Every structure is written in structure tokens, then in C-alpha cells.
Amino acid sequence: MSVVTVTDLRVTVGRALVDGVSFEVGAGEVLAIVGASGSGKTTTGLALLGEYPAGAEVSGEVKVRGRAGFVPQHPGAVLNPVRRVGSVLRELASVSAVEQAVDAARFPRSLLDRYPHQLSGGQQQRLVLAQALLGSPAVVVADEPTTGLDRETRDEVVGEFGRLAQRGVALVVLSHDMDVVRALADHVVVLRAGKLMESGPAAEVLTNPRNPYTRALLVDPIRAAADDATGSERLRVENLVAHHGKATALHGIDLRVSTGECLAVMGPSGSGKTTLARCVVGLHPPTSGTITLDGRPLARTLRSRPRHDLAAIQYVFQDARASFDHRRPVLDQVARTAVLLRGMSTQDSRAAALSVLASFRLDEATARRLPPTLSGGELHRAALARAVLASPEVLVCDEITTGLDTVTRQSVLAQLTALRDAQALTLILITHDHTVATHLADRVMTLHEGRLRTP
């Protein structure tokens, strides 16, 4: 008997987000829903939880037999920032049930007394998986569950999902990561602009796709980086030490990045990669050490940096959705960057914003919408456009290809390469994606337990 049955589902908000989608998932089966950003994956997944966009017109039928758990793409958005994570879990279930869930999700019990901001992206992801497992769900909907995870942690999460399926839990995985889909899926549904392009057994769809769109998703060409950088030194970090409370996150980091160079910083979840990035841009004040740009020292915090230094180093957040005000159109927020950091008029800033957004394949109609109505991939591109609009000298990108489909990722990486060629832009990529690091970066450095090593 099927645990999930979806029949001719249609969800419309001005336009069709999902248009006539049908599928079934049995106990212990894994269904992967794949497609480019904006294809309707998340809308379909949330429908299994009985959740729809505000003002949506819904038709068709969704049946779920039993409780549904949910693992969101951006775990930080569902965690209470002022509550210790263990306290929240213990309000939902007994102590023994919480311990069983966190063990199953590979979340260390020793971290239950921490607040969400004290956890790495990978630790947050495992925490929300544990939360989803409370109450023994019949089906778990996982929206990009490996987003931002290093390869080792990703494999652990994939292994845990596989064990869940073996115990009879139905899984619906929404993913751009075809390696994850290949490892987990029994069946695959391919969506494009809300329509079902192709579906069937994973072995058939992934090895012999009938639809050209499916074939495009499976191909993974990434444009190689420009020639090795030979410019002068642009950014220097010396003896950088940073703390999270009493815990040392970074131990005496030293690095130099040249004009036009791309440096990839890799390492497992919790190794200090994002802390290093936030120190460079002024979002996390270091305990000691210096950061210099073109030979001049930078203030420790954003508030202490003058406008030209704010514009010079831009940061693209891993959680693009959380970086936008949900009540204001995307275009207004992107254009505001040019007003604040480049002194442009409102009219000129909008024109400049539309031009940059278009280069990242976001048209004016999309840009005028509110952030909650855009897909995760669209918001990633909008966040990148907002940073580029400041005309930075250094662009720090924290997992910017995470959660992007193959076509969108290729477009974003090609745009970054073009920016390097045209503007001698210095890039610092915080990434778990070895393919991106290999093809785009001039150098790769690895963080482990807050210490920087050359692999």
C-alpha cells in the first residue's frame, strides 16, 4: 500500500507552480524529485505536509497515510535562535526519544546545550533531521538535505536516509545533487516549470533518460577557471584568531590572495570556514590578528569600516533566503546596494540592478516579486547579483553553488569567471564541492579544526 499518493496536483499563484503532477511512494521507497530552480520541487514537497503558498489555488489530491516529517533546505530558518537546541527537542519528545533521534541523525549529544548560531551548517542540517525523526514519521520530505555539507558528512546523511528506508520509512528527496539521487532513489520524477517531464525507476531515468531536459540535468560541465593569477597581493590575513564564546574557532590563520585569484577554502562542517569568511568581511570580530586590503588594515567590524571598504569586500551568504527581507521586493533590495555603497540615484540604481540581475538569468518580473515567492536557486542568483552590484574588489562566496541545479550552477560559475576576466575580481570560495574547487580555483586550502592546511 502506498504511503503517499499524489494525483493531478495543481498549485497556482498567478502562474502555475505545479501543473498536473502525479506519483506514489510506498513504505521503504525513496522518490527523488529533480529539476532546475523554480521547477516546483519544493512546492510539491510542501504539499505532502499540507502547506501551500499564501493565496494559492489548489486542485488535485494529496494523500499521506501517517505522520510526515520535514527536513528543510535551510535549517537555520526553522531553528529558534534564542533557545538551546536540546531544550527545544525535549519539548517535542521524551529524553530517550530525543537521544535516539539525535543518534540516528549523527548529531552529537554534546552539542545539545548549544544555540543554533554555535553550530556549523552541517551540524544544523543533522539537527533538523533529528527533529524530523521525532514521532516516528511514515514519510520524510527532505528538501536538498545535503546542502552545504562536506563529502564525508553528506555520505553519512545519505547513509542514514538509506537506513530509514530500510526500516520502512518512505522518503521524498528534493535534490539537485545527482550523486545523492543515484545513491538513494528507487524512483525519479523530473519537473520543469511545474510540469512532469519524465518519471520512472531511477536506474532507467538516470542511465537512459528519454527527455532532453533530463539529459541536460545529468550533464555536469563546468567552465574551467582563467589562467593562474599573477596579480599583486590584494588580501592578507595574518595570525587570525577567532572565538565562539569560549571555544576557539580559528587558530592563528595566515593567508594571502592575489588580485584576480580564486582561492577555495575547504574542510568538514565545523572546521571554521564560514567563521573565516565572516571575519574577512567584518561580520565576526576576530579576537586578534590583522586583515589588510591592498596594504591597508581593515577595521574588525562592519560598523567601523568606511563605505569604500564595505563596497570593496562583499559576502554572498550560504542561506540566501535568510539574507533577504521577506516583505520587500527583491529588486528594491538589490538596487539599495548601489544607493548605499556607490551613491547612485534610485532611478539609476534600479537600472543597474536590472542589468546585473539579467546577467544572472533573473528577469524584471521575477525581480519585482517578494523573496518568499522565488525558488532557492533564484534567491542564490539574486544574492550574488546584489553583491556584484557593489563593484567589489573581493567577493567572498559561502557555498554559493549549493542547492543549484546543473544548468544554473554552470551559469553562475561562468558569470564568476567572466567577472574575474573583466574586473580582476578576487574570489574566496567557501565550498564542499570538489568539482567546483578543482575547475574554478587557482589554489585550494583546507581548514581542519580551525587550522589552515595546504592539502
Keywords summarizing the entry:
about 450 residues, about 35% helix, alpha/beta, 6-stranded mixed β-sheet, about 25% strand, 16 helices
Notes on the structure:
The strands form 4 sheets. This protein has a 6-stranded mixed β-sheet, with helices on both faces. Helix content is 35%, strand content 27%. The termini are far apart. It is α/β, with parallel strands linked by helices.
What is the terminal separation in angstroms?
50 Å
Stretches where pLDDT is under 50 for at least 5 consecutive residues are 221-230
Q: How many strand elements? A: 19
Number of helices: 16
Q: Radius of gyration, Cα only, in angstroms?
A: 22 Å
Largest sheet: 6 strands, mixed
Order of strands, main sheet, comes to 5-6-7-3-8-9
Helix content: 25-40%
Task: Give the overall silhouette.
Answer: globular
SSE class: alpha/beta
Percentage of β-strand residues: 25-35%
Q: Would you tell me the overall average pLDDT?
A: 86
